[in-house]
Design a protein that fits this description.
The protein has two helices and 23 strands. The protein is mainly β.
């Protein structure tokens, strides 16, 4: 029976070199890095094949540190996916079992597909621009914002990916209403390069311009009848007079308004009753052009502050009629009062 195998053993046993261990492919911009752990000290050379073995590279084994990690940089690589076959050899040209690794090279096509993080709004008020950010892509690692302040000093801010708002202080709105930004991407956890979107220029919206309320009218569907404090009191420009909600029932309480004409509106302003005692908190806003069909803009949280506040819509709207449906206050009560209500544009 041994004669069956004699032809296979008469030349002696085959010697294998230990294979590349824990191979990683690090993606980059028109380049990549292969790394692996060297477990066989007899290995002296590595040969790497790709593109169905039409391309290859032979390099001596050189480890970069005491952990016996071999790093191999591949530069000037075309954008695309790659499959690498890695062999190690010793000085006698014995080779290892092949190890395959797959990776990606990124280039201009990838960069052109990247989108800057969306900006919901950028509003200038009191020497400051406040940026409200949209949801970033999952591979975004941050955003870079550049602007010039009133002293003509340029600022570059690195905005973390989890930031929802960013403030640009001492913004020079009178000289330059714009700022620039770009978004940073890392396509995967092993990427050796950071990728940037094309720089975008954004114009900040200016200070609020309030609409004249002298011809406005309000509804009387909800108010404190004994005191006669109707929603019309919120239109008189006096913080000493208020609309007091109906005390005979709890929330919701509704105040409706007719501006007399269709206006382009970017938000509503309000002044809470002072001293603050259970200021209005959650409010739903509905709008209409004909007082028949109503569209909800959603619920908004009002500030627990005695100063005038501007409640910005997510996007400007055209309408004539609006309702404010109050649903809670900061005292967890059944009703409260409001001093002033109005609309503005930017």
């Amino acid at each position: 029976m041994d004669s069956t195998y004699i032809d296979f053993t008469k030349k002696g046993s085959i010697t294998y070199v230990g294979s590349a261990d824990s191979v990683k492919v690090h993606s980059g911009k028109n380049r990549m890095k292969l790394s692996w752990k060297l477990i066989d000290p007899t290995a002296t050379k590595a040969v790497i094949y790709w593109n169905n073995k039409s391309d290859s590279l032979s390099v001596p084994i050189v480890t970069s540190n005491e952990s016996n990690i071999m790093d191999l940089w591949l530069n000037d690589m075309a954008e695309g996916s790659y499959s690498f076959d890695i062999y190690l050899f010793d000085k006698n040209n014995n080779k290892s079992i092949m190890v395959n690794a797959i990776g990606q090279v990124y280039g201009n096509n990838y960069i052109e597909s990247l989108l800057a993080r969306p900006i919901k709004r950028a509003i200038y008020e009191k020497d400051t621009v406040q940026i409200t950010w949209g949801t970033p892509d999952v591979t975004v690692i941050g955003t870079e914002v550049k602007y010039t302040d009133k002293q003509n000093v340029e600022h570059v801010l690195n905005i973390p990916v989890d930031s929802i708002t960013t403030k640009l202080g001492q913004f020079n709105f009178s000289k330059n209403e714009t700022f620039e930004y770009r978004t940073l991407y890392v396509p995967d956890s092993l990427s050796i390069d950071t990728f940037y979107t094309v720089t975008k220029t954004v114009k900040a919206t200016g200070p609020p311009v309030e609409y004249n309320r002298s011809a406005w009218t309000s509804g009387t569907e909800d108010y404190d009848i004994p005191s006669g404090r109707t929603p019309q009191n919120t239109l008189d420009g006096k913080t000493s007079t208020v609309w007091h909600m109906d005390k005979t029932h709890g929330y919701p309480h509704t105040a409706s308004f007719d501006m007399g004409a269709v206006n382009y509106v970017t938000g509503l302003f309000y002044v809470q009753r002072t001293p603050l005692d259970g200021a209005a908190k959650l409010v739903e806003i509905q709008i209409s052009t004909d007082n028949v069909t109503w569209n909800s803009l959603g619920a908004f949280t009002m500030e627990n502050s005695g100063t005038k506040q501007y409640l910005e819509f997510f996007e400007p709207r055209n309408f004539r009629y609006f309702k404010m449906i109050f649903k809670s206050d900061y005292k967890n009560g059944l009703f409260t009062a409001i001093a002033e209500i109005g609309a503005y544009k930017r």
